[in-house]
Structure formats: C-alpha cells, structure tokens
Inverse folding.
C-alpha cells in the first residue's frame, strides 16, 4: 500500500546494496548514509541501517524502524532519527528510543530532516550541536564511547519510554507508513 507516498522508482541502498523504493524520504536517508561514510569516516560495518524496535503501551505493540544505529567499538553510541519537517517535535521520541534500543543509555541522539540536524546528549536531552556538520565523526564517537559510563536503564523507565515512543510514533501514524507495523 503506497498511500500518499510518492514512489519515484527504485534505487540501490548505499549501505546494504538492496534495491528499495525511491522516495523523497529515502533520498534524504541515502544522503545521510553517504555522509556518514564519506565525510565522517564510518565504515559500513559501524552502521546498522533500519533495525526494528518493538515498542509497547499496555497491550498494544508495534515495530518501528530506527534509521541509523551507530557503534563505536562494540557499543551503540549514536542513533539517528530522520523525519521530514520540524526537528523539535521529534526530540522526545528520539530520546525515548535512546533509552529503549539497548539496556543502557545511548549517549548521542541525532534528529534530522536531511537538511538540518540537532545533536542531543542522550542522558540530559540537551542540544550539543546543530547542523549536519555537527554530527560526531568516527573519531569523536570513539572518544565519547571511551568517556561514557553507559548507565543502565531500569525496567520501569524502559517501559515508560516505550509508551512515549508508541504515543509519538504509532498512535495516529499514517496507515500507509511502512516503517511502522502494528501488532
């Protein structure tokens, strides 16, 4: 079901080599993927594109996709959430993802619309940088990994953060959004 999303044909995903639908949103994701490799020094192996995340709110469940999950050494140290439009409206859900995707607090959270980006400290939610050029490169992310304590997220907090994600990302989502699967 394509709904209102304009399919422009197909393209080959820069990171995976898979053939996928060519949409305006996907073009921005591909731009970000290229930037991570060519400008910021990441290896393809450092980046997990589009992993699933199960979220729950009481008896409701859904699976959402995270645009990019990036590791330094063996720890997830950064997530990147893409979405068109306003960045501010995506902050809280992105922070919640940084507290649910792993059992520890992911230190760097990036929210971008492909043109602008805000970089946040995962623990405090404070903006630490603005602009695509402020996304930490591989060397900086390794430094962050070494300096970080990777505080564990309690089961109760993870449950509450999952509810936040569900309310922001799943409730009221477009029925044609293929990045969200209600279970």
């Amino acid at each position: 079901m394509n709904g209102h999303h304009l399919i422009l044909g197909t393209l080959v995903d820069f990171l995976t080599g898979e053939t996928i639908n060519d949409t305006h949103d996907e073009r921005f994701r591909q731009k970000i993927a290229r930037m991570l490799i060519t400008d910021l020094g990441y290896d393809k192996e450092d980046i997990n594109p589009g992993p699933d995340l199960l979220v729950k709110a009481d008896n409701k469940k859904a699976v959402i996709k995270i645009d990019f999950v990036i590791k330094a050494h063996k720890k997830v140290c950064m997530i990147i959430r893409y979405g068109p439009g306003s960045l501010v409206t995506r902050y809280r859900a992105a922070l919640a993802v940084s507290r649910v995707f792993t059992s520890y607090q992911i230190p760097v959270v990036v929210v971008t619309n492909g043109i602008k980006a805000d970089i946040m400290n995962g623990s405090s939610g404070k903006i630490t940088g603005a602009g695509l050029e402020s996304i930490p490169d591989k060397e900086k992310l390794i430094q962050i990994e070494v300096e970080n304590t990777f505080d564990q997220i309690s089961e109760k907090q993870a449950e509450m953060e999952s509810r936040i994600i569900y309310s922001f990302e799943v409730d009221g989502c477009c029925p044609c959004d293929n990045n969200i699967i209600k279970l």
Summary: Helices lie at 24-39, 91-98, 138-147, 155-170.
